[in-house]
Amino acid sequence: MDRFPSATFGHVPQNTPHNSTLPPQDNSVSQDVCAPCAPCAPYTPVVGLVGGIGSGKSALARWVAQHARIEILDADRLGHQALDDPSLAKLVLDRFPQAANPDYTKDTIHPNQTDQPNQTDQPIRRAALAEIVFGADPESQSARNDLETIVHPYIRRRLTDLIQQHREQDGCEGILVDAAVLLEAGWDDLCDHVVFVDVPEATRLARIDSTRDWTRNEYLDRQASQWPLTRKQDAADRSIDNSKTLEHSGQQLLALIHSLGKPNDSKQDHPPA
What we know:
Elements: E1 46-51, H1 57-67, E2 70-74, H2 75-84, H3 86-95, H4 126-133, H5 138-167, E3 174-178, H6 182-185, E4 193-198, H7 201-211, H8 216-224, H9 229-235, E5 238-241, H10 246-260
Parallel strand pairs: 1-3, 1-4, 2-3, 4-5
């Protein structure tokens, strides 16, 4: 049976006498009245940010969020939350007992404390864990793979849930996913567009020296744990130069987000949210 009455399409209903005269029907659609529909509705795009360490992805994301209703999803913070989850922390410590915090007791944990908790309040020493998993040698790579197997599913679930939540918010113009290993972890399939934040190495190293207490070896170990920058740039949909002012690069990123959010201007097959 048809979903709509046949009269809707200009046919004579079965209970209407054959000699009856029906008024002519106007089946045209008014040009000045348009019912809300999916193709015409604004779309909330998800843009992933990738780049080298010290490229300023987070600073760029914050600038954009300060100038528009853009939500930022910080995968690094979600990774910290994963390590604070009791069930995941146990799995991590079962694999890496040397990363256990000897000063930690269950009485010191603060479940509601999500912003930079004191390291003595956490079951895992992140610095010790970093020493184990970062590096290009086979042992570090194996350890990193094991850690990612434990932590990455949690991060992906949280990203998926948060994308859905923000898309349901009125007025959200876009979502930025700030994730150093977005491509390596396969989270780019949650994004409509991936932007490579391009900065010369000398500039990145200067930023790292001023903002992070890392030795050069620590920097090299972390960089070696990610894809080469040329591979990241090739895999991205677009590059943005972030070696100048944040206003210069931020306006480019904001314009991109707004262009992706226009009706009928986003991907045909949107990634799952």
